[in-house]
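tool_call: predict_structure(chain=1)
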Amino acid sequence: MGPSGHGWREMSGVLYLVGTPIGNLGDLSDRARDTLAAVALIAAEDTRRTGRLLHGLDIRTPLVSMFEGNEDERAAEVVERLEVGEDVAVVTDGGMPGVSDPGYRVVRRAVDRGIEVRVVPGPSAAIAALVLSGLPTDRFAFEGFLPRRPGDRARRFQALRHEPRTIVFFEAPRRVPTLLREIGGALGDRRIAVCRELTKLHEEVIRGTVDEVLAAIGERDLKGEVAVVVEGDHDGAPLDHAALLDEVRRLIEGGMRTRDAARAVAERHGASANDLYRAAITEA
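tool_result:
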């Protein structure tokens, strides 16, 4: 069979991508628990951390490690297990596999070999931070951890200067002040939200402009995992009139009145509602 989603190899197992809690163990779904108990093998970013999770659930499924340094080799081994009919689950230390964590390479190998891949959705630190931030959520860009080398970081920031979407970064807690100063210098004093320890006892979201959040953090020694959400650029980016008009068309096709659609798109991007309205009715 072709790549239509049908005709998986009859003898192959199934690769499960299982979302696990980013902090609060109560966020583990019943389906995730049942899947982890039923598979033949779990490939985990950190076997000790996942082992503690499984122990608390009284699950005795065998574990193998699969982290950034060994993912290529381990992915090949996992696919071999799948090809002889065993089901395998992939988990990370918390959140969804493949999102700034191991998982992509084994999925790619499985897809290339015609093996079925299923997802058991669960918590995501990036999405949790985004919806808590108070910033626009309709379109966003996930950047994860920035490169460590100064030149590479500078080039990444340069590429993001005119990004209109809300941007989500991950950062180590001790490096958050440095990241915020870089954001302020490269992108300006935008609205941001620093989200830490999400779903845990000491969950905290610090909102404000870059300067305001830096002042609020002060000399504090931040703890836990941190996501930083940054407002997109709405002033300096050159407006793509054709793209804005496409957005207006999609809203109209969804049932919105032309004038209301033009106004909504204009407000979102800082464009002229009248110009968009005139262009939309001229096309009609």
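agent: Confidence is low (pLDDT under 50) at residues 1-9. Proceeding to next step.
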